[in-house]
Amino acid sequence: MRKSQVSPMRESFLTGQDENKQYSNSRVGRASVKGMLNSIRLSSINIDKFDQALSPDFASGFEESVDCFAEITTKAAALLDAEKCFLFIKDENEQKLYTFIADTEGEHIRATKPIDRGIAGTILSEPTGYTANKAHQSDRWSEELDELPGFVTNSYLAWPIWDFSSCKCIGVVEFRNKSGGMSSFSPADSQFARIIALQLGHAIIHYKQQELIAGHTEAINKAYEKNFDQGETIDFSSGTEFDNNRKAVSFSPNPRATSQMKIAKQPSLFDARRSSVSISDRAWDYDVFLQSEEDLVMHAIDIFDERGLFSRFSIPMTTFVNFVGEIKQGYDKSSPYHNHYHAFDVMHVCYLLMTKCRADEYLESFNTLSILVAALAHDLGHDGYNNAFHQNTDSDLAVTYNGISILENYSAAYLFRILRKQENNIFARLDAEEMTKMRTRLIDMILDTDAKNHFMLMTRFKHGLEMKKLSRGLLSSMILHVSDVSNPARPGSVARKFAYAVQKEFFRQGDKERELGITQTPFMDREFENLPRMQVAFIDAVVHPVFRLLADFLPLVEAKCIKSIQLNRAFWHNMLHRGILKTDDIISFLETQKRGDSFILPAIEGSGASECEDEEGNDHAVPIPGIPADATKNHGESDARRASLISISTAIPKAYNDPELGYTDHGRDSIAKPRRSFRYSMVESSGGCLRRAHRTMSSFLDSPAFQILTFLATLYALFAFDLNAAVGEKESDGVFDQVTLVVLVIFLIELLLNLICVSGYIQFFFWLDLVASVSLYLEISFLVQMGPELGDADDFALAKAGRAAKAGARAGRLASILRVIRLVKVFKLAKWALERLTKKDKRESTSKDDLENELHFSMSVIGRRMTESITKKVIIAVVLMLIMFSATDVNYTPDARQFQLDTIAEFPETTLIESFLDSHDNIIAFSAPGYEYKDQDRIDALRATEILMLNSTVNEFTTASFDVSEDIETQAWYSLLITSFVTLLLATMGLLFSRDAYKMVIHPIEKMKHTVQHLSENPLLHLERIKKRNSSESTETDMLAQAITKMAALLQVGFGSAGAEIIAKNLSDMGELNPMIPGVRVNAIFGFCDIRDFTFATEGLQQDVMIFVNKIARIAHTHVVESGGHPNKNIGDAFLLVWKLKSGKNTNSSGDLQKEMYDSALNCVQNIIHDLKQAGSIGSFLHDDMSGMSPAWASSLESYKVAMGFGLHKGWAIEGAIGSKLKIDASYLSPHVNLASRLEAATKQYSVNLLMSDAFFGGLSGSLQSTCRRCDKVIFKGSTEPMVIYVQDTEPLAMLVNPPRNHDHLLELTTWDDKTDKAYYGLINDAKSKLCSERELVQREVYDALFNSYLDRDWNRCKIFCHLWMEKFPGDPVVICMVNHLSKYNFHCPESWPGFHALSEK
């Protein structure tokens, strides 16, 4: 058992400290703790049992089963020495106590007993335990319930199990008959029972929470899986970086691309009719109340047109106008709020969320269509009374829809009744499968707008974000619901209009409720009008949380909407504070402000009353209509999951903490984790503790504070002894010794940490550090000399020995400090040089992604080895120099004092002694036979090292002691000078040697190493942006670095993006060259392009054809790279272009659909076509690049126009090496690459420059889809599935006026007879009127009808549309090609026609 979990609890129990810590908020807890402490001080406790009771393993793995109950009660009975123990839990539903036991036959049963009878039931109402010696005689005893067969209960002890978080008793644990010869349970037993009850309380609460969470999770998963389409899952792994601080990522191609031609959506042909404000400028301040009925219809048309829905789903304009008209008529105009204005406003906000907040990056065209249609129809038929009103009045709608989402079900049914009419069916071109999916999606979205489904929808969305498994259908529902409640997110003037309308509609329902005599709904009684309070509550409970949740997925919602919500809430709160509660008063207040021309929102005063308090300060949680009554309360957390659990009418207790028992529950996440065995947890904990300890020690060793500390300690070890000898006094030696001891401890700690944390440390520097550390021992006087006094000769000798040892050890300490200084200096110099180089590069180039900015150098292996080698050699040289100086420092000058002392010893005359004493002022003691002198005061003031004792060589009785403190001070200053000089010398030499080696060898090698390393990580790194060094003389390392850069650039150019993995694998692997690595499957957009009439150009240009091809390639490749793509194969006159999709962290798009990549690819192709058209003829294209050409070919080529054909397709391919180890090409193998090639080949047949597959077209944004139209439905040779191919109209249709040479023949082919004229009279006139319109969108409706007739096998009708279309647009190559094809069958569809055109050309 871990003592850290037991000791605090044991101490609080035994000492009485913090006795109210856990239960300060509980009357029951305070009483039980005080009583327990008073009793426990009078009794003795078995500490081992106490630890067992507090063990977290006591009730670990609790569950409601016979085995678990038996195990727990057996352990509890053993702790109290009781014969029997029972555990009862309260059933809140049945109001009974239950337990799990095994009957006489061994069957597991759930036994119950009532809570109003029996001794156990009475304990439920007790704040503390209950003890009785003769329980069967107690008034609480029930023979029927409490008697056990064959068992007599004498002593009895029970304790209630409390849930202190909710202040209610949840069970009882009881003990019967004290064993061991005791007649009753002691106070200590009572406290053990109390601890056991607390432990069981935690276990039971956690078990209940787990069951509750499991039930909620199942409900949430079931709700989330509702109509979940696996194929519409949003991919979080590649297109998004999703976390709590997720930022919007925008695709930005190379800035140079901005100067090129951009293909934008052509203006809608309703521009002449539409208001002067374009669709892109109709933002959050768009006010539907200021628009006419016709303007609203035009607004819907503009939105659908801008999203490309008319062309994508072949929606005829007439049908759409009829549909919108039916929708308008379906709304009750008498309803103040739920009218068609609200429907169009919701559609507008949905559009803004998709465009301004970039939700369309995750939505396909199908989702966009469903959202906008559901927005228009979500409140169809709404009569202005909510669902609760219909339910309470038992209306026909409530009966029809069984009281479930009454109005929402009615609106969905109303929508599909409208769509049943052929003239309103905008989904007519959807097939059966798509129509089923659309119907299901629309019903789901409309039902999700029910206010009662608000929290469940938030839960499903939150769950999808947490699990990173969000469907487009769920996102669509969320967008619609957010738009439905978005009024407070609009600018104040618009938001207030909707607030007034809501208030008016509420009052209308309130009046009706009063008339019918039913309870009036809050906020709907006009006699208690309080619009500000209603708006504040609505914002706090619904609007702000749901917008905040959506902002977690779409970060732009934060900037576009949240601020407006906060401002509107501030306005309504201010009105509430001012007491302006009625609508008329608010309008008057605003008019007053406007008349003063100073409409300023007054400051919000913090001292005002809360918006949820009445005049008496009472808090009233008034529910919002359709929202659960407790939805606005703070349940301890503000996330959507908490709100969802409220909507399911459940309540999860808050995290339960009991610091007294050393137990903490950190919430539901910790509860849901599976329990593991205690032993496994201890083993895992031990390993984790060791790893954490190692990381802690490493961090401490590398911390700046410890480095500074060791640096200062090293300085002290170098200079402190000499400084103390030079300027210190004897009295300061004690302090010096203590500080030196501390420094020694610091060195030993550093040595130990290096041994533990630094691998390979036991080398040269280890021994230097060890010698330097141990040498400090000789400088601590109280460790060296323990007893002798000053006069002892051995003391002086010992002091000299210590001084000599210190001098010998100084070289080791010197090496330690110089090593630290060198590393720090080298690091600082390298960092300074790198910063200077980076700044220089930034001044020379404005690019932000230069390689130098990306390289962060670290010490290389060769750099580290060379630096250490140089340092070692310098240190060894200096140390050897010091040793040689010390060894040769021999003083041959004889000491005169020794000679005089020997003379006195030989001739002991008084005159000689007095003369000797007079000639030496520094004598402090003299001893000779018959003569004694001693200056005790001076002796006491001197250190042992400052006293020199000389002994006569003649006899041992003549001695003299001298004061050499001045000599010692001189030597100390000299030693300081030598130490400083050696330190400076060693540092200078080390830095100079290391700097030259680092500058000329190590740093260039490290740059080359990091270049290769970054290439292995990012093979497409732009190495050409590295600036060359400005040096008059290039070194060998410069040559190698430039060669590596050039070779890497050649690899990139040669292999391209398809060979990136080959480069990375071979550069990162130190083994043999292996270019034949396995292929990788990628998703990409493939573009195949071909130069028109290349054979003719080759024959004419001859050797100059390379110039011609390469110039075209430069144009194409430049645009491709700028658009985020990669050029691949160059096959003479053809090129393969690739735009990779979903490439993990390197993806170039913020949404998982990566629509911007599709748009960028299409714009890139159109830019190439545009540039080639600007080139004109081949002569003007090549200018002066051509050499001599024969006049005949020159005149022939003069009419040759430079042009290319393109095919765009999206699919998968295998990226890798093709060939052998002798020669490889990095490319893509896939049938989808072949499809792109065949699309390009088909451009010649359809006489267009570009053809797109359906797969590519579906990835485009709506604005570009609206510029495209269907060309044909074909199946290519080698394919099994037909596809619709598309062309893009980069110019208005009016530009298609140049007829072909056979124009008259084509018109003749499509002429019809009088019978056909009569049969299709109305159709012909309608088509002619549409073609005469100046609005291109109306004209395109004729083309859609033409193409649909072709697919519907009605080729006779198609012939009529072709004739009318060619009369209006004679230069349309698509229709011309269709006429040529259908004329082969005389415009009669064969019975065997499969519904598509088979193309046989490759």
Automatic annotation (TrEMBL):
Zn(2+) 1 binds at H342, H378, D379, D484. InterPro entries: A/G_cyclase, GAF, GAF-like_dom_sf, HD/PDEase_dom, Ion_trans_dom, Nucleotide_cyclase, PDEase, PDEase_catalytic_dom. GO terms for molecular function: hydrolase activity; metal ion binding. Binds 2 divalent metal cations per subunit. Site 1 may preferentially bind zinc ions, while site 2 has a preference for magnesium and/or manganese ions. Its cofactor is a divalent metal cation. The chain crosses the membrane at residues 700-721, 741-768, 874-892, 972-993. The keyword Transmembrane applies. It comes from Cyclotella atomus. This is Phosphodiesterase. CDD domains: CHD, HDc. It is found in: Membrane. The keyword Membrane applies. Keywords: cGMP, Hydrolase, Membrane, Metal-binding, Transmembrane, Transmembrane helix. Zn(2+) 2 binds at D379. It is a multi-pass membrane protein. The active site is at H338. Residues 256-579 form the PDEase domain. One of its GO terms (cellular component) is membrane. Its EC number is 3.1.4.-. Residues 1085-1240 form the Guanylate cyclase domain. Belongs to the cyclic nucleotide phosphodiesterase family. AMP binds at H338, N339, H340, Y341, H342, D379, D484, Q535.
